[in-house]
Amino acid sequence: MSSHFPETRVLLVGSFDDSLHAHAGLRRRALERLGCRVATVNLIGTGGWLSRLRRVGLHDRLARAIAGSTPALVLVLEGTQVDAAMVASLRQGAPTTWVNWFCDARRAPEDILPFAAAYDAVFVADHATVEALDVAGNPPVHYLPAGCDPSIHRPMRARDRYRANVVFAGTATPYRERQLYELVEFGLAVWGPGWRRTRLRDYCRGELLGHQDYIRAYAGASVAVNVACSDENAAGGHDPGASRRLFELAAIGVPQVIEDHPDTQRHFREGSELLVARSPAELRTLTAEALHDRAWAEQVAAGARQRALSEHTYMHRLAVLLQTVMGRVPALAAG
Question: Is the pLDDT of residue 2 over 60?
Fold first, then answer.
């Protein structure tokens, strides 16, 4: 798949670091592997007054980056700091194509709507949001979930505190606390911010979760549990079913028990690649069965990993995005 877009110049705008926002760097690497020439603008400050200065000067930093790299495509990853007025100002007199990919955050359509019209195309992580944003005045809205990087998300040997029967890694929420509390008897370990302020405090292995810790924690699990941030039926609840965790766990090669969502089974087969729970009782039952029948669970994990590597890497995702945009703007191919 490499070098499909040789010398295509892309300015990638997002939050880059080695922990919570490590995924932006993985997308940059995927673009480079596809043959693109990538420049970046980091939306993260370093804290305090410098962070405030970076936000205030964002327009000028973007303008300099565009002038210096002359991109055919500006790809914004979420980037709500880059509002509609800023995009309108920066694109004046330039043929650059602007795209926003909302693939990580659990943003409801009403959160995306104020930004959408400023872009040439918008990509989002669930089909319901595509339908909600399909309104007059908006650019084309496409479904494109997150993915994985097999060089990072891979099986590995885990020891000591990274070994556990059942693992969940992510921010604590009341919904997750309720769901996971039913699994404590199976040898639960939780990782991530906030768990030590919940009933699961005694099961927390660590709150400051770097990306490598996240991978080691799941790689050391006999069973990984994939629980949404909130109950999507609750007020204000919104979770993309095909979350980033779905593809990462598949690539790590751990058996995955996940809550049911229409988008998940667009990508993996239930039973042979995913264990899908439609109720808290099923979440508990499937977790117990996967722990009891390890050979069966490992077959499921192997099926998911094969699927992830063949269809769901960030190179696959960025190739689709570039092909979609190139279809609308042929000049992009010239770089």
Answer: no
